[in-house]
């Protein structure tokens, strides 16, 4: 019993009410989003596996049909992210998430009944719209319930499940192909869609994230409530005049361009040129996700402990530079492996920078909703065409042009990280960005503003708005 209590204190702190609240969130809210994100990765992997396992011939895919399928998905996925996160401030998120997650997983199931390539292209376009909030929506909700000293670690857990889904997707598909091909008269590629949907639908339907009245009251004392504002034209004025809307999505875009050296089969094609076997070409690159998991967790935990994000962000930016510079230098074989695996640790911004965005928009829920959706959409606006120029398969295995582009984009993150850190400190001192006592950058002006906000908390609690996530009451 004593050991269990010590573990609970280590995980959730010494204050009993905090432990109870965090334990409930960690056993309901966090697992739901994490498992969905894991299965999302497995689902997307099913399309590439099915394509090379008989779907291409069965549905008569021609020319660039497969590319059209991927593009149709990415376009609707990117376009619907901002509206999706905004919707979470207007409709109870549990209803939004269940409806969206059930729909995209059901569409995956329906794919096995399709008879033409354009049918699958159309389904992917619809699926992209409904799956748009699987990532940004989850990060938005997590940012509504956890404190500054807790959020980075939870975002890291969520992102780690995505990496695990990417790693396991190929293995799961391979197992399905071997065990179910031809069963009940169905080809293996159809079984892939059926089984993946059967795995996903029960999780999509499971929603048990709720708080009782006492836990909501306690949550109101832990997290600042943003002033309640309606959706009108002033929202867009506030958003478009804010630095948060531009700077964090910009550095996230630079990060995504930098790590294109880890995508596009770059490592596998380089290994092929060095005589590695096909099995090795498939297995060795998965270690990038392993270093990504380590980097994501370590950086997020450190940023939570010090209650600040810019220090670890600088470390990530320097890693961009070092890893890309090694690739540009065309090192011996061991140097390439070291650079690829080192750059894998820089997947950490998926957790750290979305947490940073939640920190600097804690005063305005609508700004946070729109900026969270825009952060990924802006990223997609570039990564859809960037590899065609800097990492075309025709350059394999010599991607020097791409490595130089990664070095430049990685280096560019550093001055902008410094600028964001400066603006965060300035606006916190002015009381624009509100911090609870004990958070970093707390100063006289913000403390006065905090006391006003804590007063608002009590008033709004009586009106049924009890925590920062009251605007997105689950």
From TrEMBL:
| Keywords recorded for this protein, A-Z | Membrane, Transmembrane, Transmembrane helix, Transport
Q: InterPro entries given for it?
A: MFS, MFS_trans_sf
Concerning Pfam families, the annotation shows: MFS_1
Compositionally biased tracts (Polar residues): 440-449
TM ranges are: 21-40, 68-88, 95-115, 121-143, 155-176, 188-211, 245-263, 283-302, 309-329, 335-357, 369-391, 403-423
> What compartments host this protein?
Membrane
Q: Where is this region: Disordered?
A: 440-465
Ranges of Basic and acidic residues compositional bias?
450-462
For the keyword Cytoplasm, the answer is no
Describe its membrane topology: Multi-pass membrane protein
Q: Which residues form a coiled coil?
A: none
Entry annotated with the keyword Ribosomal protein = no
Q: What is this protein called?
A: Major facilitator superfamily domain-containing protein
Q: Which organism is it from?
A: Aspergillus cavernicola
């Amino acid at each position: 019993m004593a050991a269990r209590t010590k573990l609970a204190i280590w995980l959730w702190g010494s204050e009993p009410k905090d432990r109870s609240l965090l334990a409930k969130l960690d056993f309901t809210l966090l697992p739901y989003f994490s498992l969905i994100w894991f299965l999302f990765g497995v689902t997307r992997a099913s399309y590439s596996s099915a394509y090379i396992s008989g779907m291409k011939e069965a549905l008569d895919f021609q020319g660039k049909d497969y590319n059209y399928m991927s593009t149709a998905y990415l376009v609707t996925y990117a376009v619907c992210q901002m509206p999706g996160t905004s919707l979470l401030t207007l409709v109870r998120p549990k209803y939004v998430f269940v409806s969206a997650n059930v729909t995209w997983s059901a569409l995956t199931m329906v794919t096995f009944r399709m008879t033409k390539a354009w049918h699958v292209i159309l389904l992917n376009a619809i699926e992209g719209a409904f799956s748009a909030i699987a990532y940004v929506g989850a990060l938005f909700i997590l940012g509504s319930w956890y404190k500054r000293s807790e959020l980075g670690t939870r975002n890291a857990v969520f992102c780690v499940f995505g990496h695990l889904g990417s790693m396991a997707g190929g293995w799961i598909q391979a197992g399905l192909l071997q065990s179910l091909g031809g069963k009940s008269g169905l080809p293996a590629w159809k079984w892939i869609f059926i089984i993946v949907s059967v795995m996903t639908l029960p999780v999509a339907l499971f929603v048990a994230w709720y708080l009782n009245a006492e836990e909501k009251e306690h949550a109101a004392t832990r997290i600042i409530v943003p002033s309640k504002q309606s959706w009108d034209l002033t929202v867009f004025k506030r958003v478009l005049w804010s630095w948060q809307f531009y700077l964090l999505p910009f550095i996230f875009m630079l990060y995504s361009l930098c790590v294109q050296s880890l995508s596009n089969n770059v490592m596998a094609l380089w290994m092929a040129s060095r005589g590695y076997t096909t099995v090795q070409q498939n297995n060795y690159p998965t270690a990038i996700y392993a270093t990504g998991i380590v980097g994501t967790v370590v950086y997020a935990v450190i940023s939570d402990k010090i209650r600040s994000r810019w220090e670890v962000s600088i470390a990530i930016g320097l890693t961009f530079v070092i890893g890309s510079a090694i690739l540009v230098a065309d090192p011996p074989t061991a140097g390439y492996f070291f650079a690829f695996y080192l750059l894998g640790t820089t997947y950490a911004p998926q957790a750290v920078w979305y947490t940073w965005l939640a920190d600097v928009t804690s005063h305005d829920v609508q700004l946070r909703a729109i900026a969270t959706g825009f952060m990924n959409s802006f990223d997609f606006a570039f990564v859809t065409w960037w590899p065609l120029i800097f990492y075309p398969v025709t350059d394999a295995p010599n991607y020097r042009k791409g490595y130089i582009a990664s070095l430049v984009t990685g280096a560019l993150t550093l001055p902008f990280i410094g600028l964001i850190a400066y603006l965060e400190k300035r606006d916190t001192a002015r009381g624009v960005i509100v911090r609870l006592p004990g958070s970093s950058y707390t100063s006289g002006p913000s403390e006065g503003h905090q006391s006003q906000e804590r007063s608002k908390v009590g008033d709004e609690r009586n009106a049924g708005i009890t925590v920062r996530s009251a605007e997105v009451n689950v």
